[in-house]
């Protein structure tokens, strides 16, 4: 039993520590390409959300030159997959950001589909850099021969010292003055409208207006104004009360729909008191219905019998005017009967 069996096969050697060859799975045998290759990132080749058709189609599109046709019909003629699977794969790539398709109109009016392929989603077109081909360094140029030595220039003959130029008279100042700079007109804001004043101010009216302004903070804490502001705004609220505005109406007009945040409550109250001032209430004559095409003649009292009649001018009624005309006619006839007969 202790004799070794020479004819038995030897066991497989265990991998040495540090060996890069895996014991199972895929083993890569890579060959370095010098031309005709495409660089594809692992984010595309190992994408978790794309199908194999979409990954392969993206790799094929990135390997094509610029301007190649990648329509659905062109791809269906090139690969065995049908148009439905190719269209679905294009939609997957477009949703993942590897493709962007848009329709543009050319100068001749024709509408075409422009497709932009990204090897990494989210990259802007302006940031994409195209690798430039490497150029071999040119041989150094031969050194140029040194220039011939120059002959020394002959020394100039001594001449008289140059005279200093005569000073020129100072230029006379220009009579025409420089154009004055006119400042640009500034747009000034229109002054705010003046606070309304009551026509018949009374102490009771001012007391009620001041009480309404002081009571605003009880309903709306943001409208807590100072006593000086209350004294300033009291005439405006008194005008509202003079025009028969109810205190609840005034409170609702001043304390609703406030801006957030409210920085100047006194200025806001002044603006609302001035701009939201209601007109005076119309009288009963103004509210009377007017019938179109009918002229209403006012009533007058007769100066003789005190009977009412309609006329634009005061005077006598119809009966009194008739009686007066009869009296005048009878008097004139009596006068004519007393005249002597002509011969």
How would you explain this protein's 3D organization?
By secondary structure, this protein is mainly α. Among the domains are: about 40-125, Winged helix-like DNA-binding domain superfamily/Winged helix DNA-binding domain (Arc Repressor Mutant, subunit A, Orthogonal Bundle); about 205-275, no CATH class. The protein contains 11 helices and 4 strands, in the order H-H-H-H-E-E-H-H-H-H-H-H-E-E-H. It has helices at about 40-45, 50-65, 70-80, 85-95, 205-215, 215-220, 225-240, 245-255, 265-275, 285, 320-335, and strands at about 100-105, 110-115, 300, 310. It has a two-stranded antiparallel sheet with strand order 1-2. The protein has a two-stranded antiparallel ribbon with strand order 3-4. The longest helix has 20 residues, at about 320-335. The chain is elongated and about 185 Å long.
Offer a concise description of the structure:
With 343 residues, this protein is mainly α. Among the domains are: 42-125, Arc Repressor Mutant, subunit A (Orthogonal Bundle); 203-275, no CATH class. The chain has eleven helices and four strands, in the order H-H-H-H-E-E-H-H-H-H-H-H-E-E-H.
């Amino acid at each position: 039993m202790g004799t070794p069996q020479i004819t038995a096969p030897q066991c497989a050697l265990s991998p040495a520590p540090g060996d890069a060859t895996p014991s199972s799975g895929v083993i890569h045998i890579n060959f370095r390409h010098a031309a005709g290759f495409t660089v594809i990132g692992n984010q595309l080749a190992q994408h978790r959300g794309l199908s194999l058709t979409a990954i392969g189609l993206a790799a094929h599109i990135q390997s094509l030159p610029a301007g190649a046709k990648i329509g659905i019909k062109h791809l269906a003629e090139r690969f065995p997959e049908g148009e439905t699977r190719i269209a679905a794969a294009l939609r997957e790539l477009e949703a993942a950001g590897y493709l962007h398709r848009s329709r543009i109109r050319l100068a001749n009016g024709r509408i075409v589909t422009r497709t932009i392929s990204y090897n990494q989603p989210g990259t802007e077109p302006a940031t994409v850099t195209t690798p430039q081909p490497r150029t071999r360094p040119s041989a150094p140029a031969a050194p140029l021969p040194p220039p011939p030595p120059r002959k020394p220039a002959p020394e100039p003959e001594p001449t008289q010292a140059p005279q200093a130029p005569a000073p020129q008279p100072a230029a006379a100042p220009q009579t025409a003055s420089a154009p004055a700079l006119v400042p640009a007109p500034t747009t000034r804001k229109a002054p705010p409208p003046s606070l309304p004043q009551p026509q018949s101010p009374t102490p009771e009216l001012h007391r009620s207006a001041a009480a309404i302004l002081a009571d605003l903070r009880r309903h709306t804490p943001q409208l807590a104004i100072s006593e000086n502001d209350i004294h300033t705004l009291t005439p405006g609220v008194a005008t509202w009360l003079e025009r028969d505005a109810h205190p609840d109406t005034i409170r609702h007009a001043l304390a609703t729909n406030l801006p957030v945040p409210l920085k100047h409550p006194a200025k806001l109250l002044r603006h609302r008191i001035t701009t939201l001032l209601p007109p005076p209430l119309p009288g009963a004559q103004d509210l009377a219905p007017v019938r179109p095409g009918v002229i209403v003649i006012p009533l007058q009292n007769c100066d003789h019998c005190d009977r009412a009649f309609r006329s634009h001018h005061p005077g006598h009624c119809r009966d009194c005017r008739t009686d007066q005309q009869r009296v005048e006619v009878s008097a004139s006839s009596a006068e004519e009967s007393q005249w002597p007969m002509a011969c």
